[in-house]
Amino acid sequence: MGKVTISVIKADIGGFPGHSNVHPALMEIAKEELSKLKGKILKDFRVLHCGDDLQLIMTHNKGVDNKEIHKLAWNLFVKGTKEAKRLKLYGAGQDLLKDTFSGNVKGMGPGVAEMEIEERKSEPLLVFMADKTEPGAWNYALYKMFADPFSTAGLVIDPHMHDGFTFEVHDLFEKKKVLIKTPEETYDLLALIGEPSRYVIKHVFRNSDHEIAASTSTQRLSLIAGRYVGKDDPVMIVRAQSGLPAVGEVLEPFSFPYAVAGWMRGSHHGPFMPVGFDQATPSRFDGPPRVICAGFQIANGMLEGPRDMFKDVSFDRARTMANEMADYFRRMGPFEPHRLSAAEMEYTTLPGVLKKLEKRFRKI
Ligand code: F6R
Ligand code: MG
Ligand code: MG
Questions:
Q1: Residue of the nearest CA to atom 13 in ligand 1?
Q2: Per residue in 287-311, is it b (16+ CB within 10 Å) or e — as a string?
Q3: Spatial distance between the Cα atoms of 175 and 156, rounded to a whole number of angstroms
Q4: Are 332 and 285 spatial neighbours (Cβ–Cβ below 8 Å)?
Q5: How many CA atoms does the CB half-sphere of 95 hold within 13 Å?
Q6: How far apart are CA 279 and CA 44, in angstroms?
Q7: How many helices (H) and strands (E) does the chain have?
Q8: What is the pLDDT, as a whole number, of residue 230?
Q9: Is 18 a pocket residue for ligand 1 (Cβ < 6 Å)?
Q10: Residue 1 confidence (pLDDT)
Q11: Strands 273-274, 290-299: parallel, antiparallel or unpaired by DSSP?
Q12: Pairing of strands 302-308, 259-262
């Protein structure tokens, strides 16, 4: 069946209106551009959006970090930005932080999650896309999927999963990575990933054969730009079934709308709300943070799908709970822990306000 690479590359190149959605014109440009490449450099593609982020889901045979693939995504975002500017969309070109393409979109603003796999007899694959939050938002869900037997029954029941999984964790501040093996080192893993603003799970591998199971985008815009330029709005690819968590085990962690950082001005904690594609339109207080999931079967590199996984009635209660949590958090106004901690607010526009007050402080 051979190898296939799945590349999910995304950027916010302009919102409509504000930061709530992607304009249909940008979706059209993306579809047109990728259509020209299908059957050539690309095997297949889908264009989706989550909130104001344009999502390119592509399959090809070129492996991860491929210059041609990254360049075509970059060129598409540049072209889309021209139209976004013409329509005066909000924050046109927001995520294109560099002027010229340097061989890889990593470190240039767009988010990227990729994996090269040997296509199995049947290859169910889930692509998660988030808006109004940061890459560490996947930590909780990935832990539940691949290391929590109370969430994923297969860790106990399926002999192929019983040896557990290894997590590749990145320290986004020090630019270092570490491999942590579960279940043996579960507590070490939690010691790190409980701080999702800094430690982020990049990959997950199955212990029994080192097969890749999950891959995420880990770019933090503020660390690239050195200032607040909107939230990172990460993406994630997860393979499922036959010795990996079942599709339903991959989805299960999102039945609880755990709190993530982001939301209004990238400065607030709020519930991570799973929604269908047509509800991926942050509204209240520019949110609450959203997550959508596109389900595919990969067939000889072609994408069968997407199925809109969170549209299902079984996630209605998660949405209700998320809206209740939103009420709870919102009533705290500018107080922590609704507002992010001081350390995280460093990367927002708040320090500009605090600077003005500095001179007025007297010793006590
Ligand atoms: C969050 C986000 C928005 C903006 C907010 C203010 O990621 O992008 O919540 O931070 O709408 O935007 P400005 O300052 O451009 O008016
Ligand atoms: Mg935006
Ligand atoms: Mg966004």
A1: 265
A2: bbbbbbbbbbebeebebebbebbbe
A3: 34
A4: no
A5: 32
A6: 25
A7: 10, 15
A8: 83
A9: yes
A10: 58
A11: parallel
A12: unpaired
Residue 284 token pair = 């209240």
Q: Are the C-beta atoms of residues 65 and 104 closer than 8 Å to each other? A: yes
Q: What is the pLDDT of residues 162-184, one digit of tens each?
A: 999 999 999 999 999 999 999 99
Nearest to 44 by CA among 2, 6, 3: 6
Q: What is the pLDDT of residues 23-73, one digit of tens each?
A: 999 999 999 999 999 999 999 999 999 999 999 999 999 999 999 999 999
For residue 105, the CA-to-ligand 2 centroid distance in Å is 18
Active site residues per annotation: 12, 228, 231
In the chain the first and final C-alpha atoms are separated, in Å, by: 73
Atom of ligand 1 nearest to the CA of 228: 10
226 lines ligand 1 (CB under 6 A): no
Distance 132 CA to ligand 1 centre (A): 9
Per residue in 261-289, pLDDT (tens digit) is 999 999 999 999 999 999 999 999 999 99
Return the best residue to mutate from 88, 286, 349 for the ligand 1 pocket (most ligand atoms within 8 A of CB).
Answer: 286
Distance of CA 318 to the CA centre of its chain: 19
**Rounded to whole angstroms, how far apart are CA atoms 284 and 99?**
33
CA of 92, nearest ligand number: 2
- Binding site membership of 266 for ligand 1 (Cβ less than 6 Å): yes
Owner of token pair 């296509």: 119
In this structure, are residues 6 and 117 in contact, taking their beta carbons and an 8 Å threshold? Answer: yes
